[in-house]
Amino acid sequence: MVKAVVVGAAVVACAAVGVAVVLERRRRKRDADLLGSAEAERRRRAAAVIEEVESSLATPTALLRGIADAMVAEMERGLRGDIHAQLKMLISYVDSLPTGDEHGLFYALDLGGTNFRVLRVQLGGKEKRVVKQQYEEVSIPPHLMVGTSMELFDFIAAALAKFVGTEGEDFQLPEGRQRELGFTFSFPANQTSISSGTLIKWTKGFSINGTVGEDVVSELSRAMERQGLDMKVTALVNDTVGTLAGGRYMDNDVVAAVILGTGTNAAYVEHANAIPKWTGLLPKSGNMVINTEWGSFKSNKLPLSEYDKAMDFESLNPGEQIYEKMISGMYLGEIVRRILLKLAHEASLFGDVVPPKLELPFILRTPDMAAMHHDSSHDLKTLGAKLKDIVGVADTSLEVRYITRHICDLVAERAARLAAAGVYSILKKIGRDKVPSGGGKMPRTVVALDGGLYEHYKKFSSCVEATLTDLLGEEASSSVVAKLANDGSGIGAALLAASHSQYQYGASD
Fold it and tell me: DSSP state, 275?
């Protein structure tokens, strides 16, 4: 009897264990179903955000043509002197470009963004060309970008004086002559001569009191005097004008220059009689280099997304430099960050908690974006490492990495295609966008491009070139060349300093 009771108890115990196992399996299945449902919902939300991003950043060719037409119309308004024109179309006072005859020792200072470059070049005329050149690059401390004018220019002049102090025997300055400098100033300025110009406004993250409306050559000259540096600024040029000069020195078919770096701008050679606002005697060459200041272009045709609008609203210059904010290196990484942040909030892209570092504006720089975009490894290891370093997420799934790369691709492609539309607009303005109707041969047309974004972000630059070919068509594009002009603005400024030397020691007439 006792045995039967024990056996019965064992059966009951086994049944209880069996029920527990079944219940546990059901619980696990339910949890798995819930987890699967949650994961499915997360993926659905992520897909919805990505689809919205793809749509809002789309740049079909027809849209690009419309943007180019709108930009040409603004260029014409600017050349007429319309005060409401978005493109200022600034007269550079450069009516002739380097010929190759330039000779002597000249310096250049290239102030274009978060870094500036000091350069010296020994020119040897047509036979020897650039005999020797040296340069140094200096980073501008962030606090000086929002400080005072004197602080900024004193810092620049000190670096320039230090650089002059390292001048070696390979660089020869004739006895009794003052060193001369070409000053590349990559911000909107109203030039009143080849060696003077007043600042219109700061861009590219600079916001300095006391400089707007002032002659920047005078500001630099006073700073050099405070450093005890005997040097004269003989040419003030925008970076695009410098790049155009440097490009023409290397290739006589260069007609335009475009900067795609921290910021963006373009310059080109215009017929002087096509500049209604020009009031002086027409230059002997019949041409004038125009600094478009195209970064300020805006149009209802531009595909502005919610991310662009929010970034612009929170910027130092809301409502300004819209085109620049869509295509330049200062902003592309930030647009990617804002999209990733939305994915983190709405689709838990990086887990249940939004990474705090992802909330920080401009934490994701465009060079990091390019590194992630260029990662072609099977497991996107570089991209994962970047997310860990920048966003602080130690472990990301392959899916998250692929989504991140796709966002980089979308933002870069839109920027590159919009940049190509800008180049196309300049070619349209000067009649280099199509083969002549009379059946003549289209002249070789070279566009010099400079800037870190174009030089180092290969997927970006490849897309610019492919889109330009698409816009021009096969026949016209065969005569158009996009050419990297590395440090063209620095060399160009030195060349223009030579051709405008106070000793007439530069180019021959």
Answer: -
